[in-house]
Design a protein that fits this description.
A hairpin with a 3-residue loop joins strand 1 and strand 2. The chain is about 25% helix and about 25% strand. It starts with a helix and ends in a 5-residue tail after the last strand. The radius of gyration is 21 Å and the shape is globular. It is of the alpha+beta class and about 210 residues long. Strands 6-5-4-7-8 form a five-stranded antiparallel β-sheet. A three-stranded antiparallel β-sheet has the order 2-1-3. The relative contact order is 0.19. It has two domains: about 30 residues; about 170 residues, PEBP-like (Phosphatidylethanolamine-binding Protein, Alpha-Beta Complex), CATH 3.90.280.10.
Length: about 210
């Protein structure tokens, strides 16, 4: 009888713990955050095991940024550039990392694509493998901050192998603006070819 009573007590405590995990915080956000994977169409962009790592969230590749715990607000207003890791990087080579928003000002009307959020060249393969890429920053990291009521935006990370002895730089015209950047022309100008790896996440304005 004592054994049965102990088992029932343990089950009751376990049930209470599960319910507590599901109840919301005082601000209405649930204790548990659920990470939703991208649709099959957007998922196709992710290839090559490129990792984009933000605080608390971990690798956000091929996911929606969840609303819970103010993550959308924090990624837009608080966190600095993510760690980028590429386990397949060749230690003897250098790479170019591009972060763009193809949905500026909205996915339905992307007249300012590609909005350049980050551009780093001369990244050593050994650093990429370790998840601590340095390199030469051509465009400082700009946090993803979609305009209100513009829906979800894709934030894409493309990693290119940098041709040996190729000095990659932005033109004076490109330096004047982040928006409406001709990424394809840039890639063609420096013979970067196709990305060796790419990934993306989706988020929208935290107040929507």
């Amino acid at each position: 009888m004592e054994l049965l009573r102990a088992a029932l007590l343990a089950a009751a405590l376990l049930g209470a713990a599960v319910r507590a995990e599901e109840t919301p915080w005082g601000d209405g956000h649930p204790r548990t955050c659920f990470f939703e994977l991208l649709s099959s169409l957007d998922n196709k962009f992710c290839r090559g095991d490129l990792e984009v790592i933000y605080p608390e969230l971990g690798d956000v590749g091929c996911t929606y940024i969840p609303e819970c715990r103010q993550y959308r607000q924090r990624i837009s207003r608080e966190w600095s550039s993510p760690r980028v890791r590429y386990p397949r990087a060749d230690k003897s080579k250098k790479y170019v990392l591009v972060m763009v928003d193809p949905d500026a000002p909205s996915r339905a009307d992307p007249r300012n694509r590609f909005w350049r959020h980050w551009l780093v060249t001369d990244i050593r393969g050994a650093d990429l493998r370790a998840g601590t890429p340095g390199g030469r920053v051509l465009t400082e990291y700009v946090r993803p901050a979609p305009p209100s009521r513009s829906g979800y935006h894709r934030y894409q990370f493309r990693l290119y192998e940098q041709p040996a002895h190729e000095a990659v730089a932005l033109s004076a015209e490109e330096l004047m603006s982040l928006g409406a950047w001709s990424m394809e022309r840039f890639v063609e100008r420096f013979r970067l070819g196709s990305p060796v790896a790419s990934t993306q996440f989706l988020t929208k304005h935290y107040g929507d």
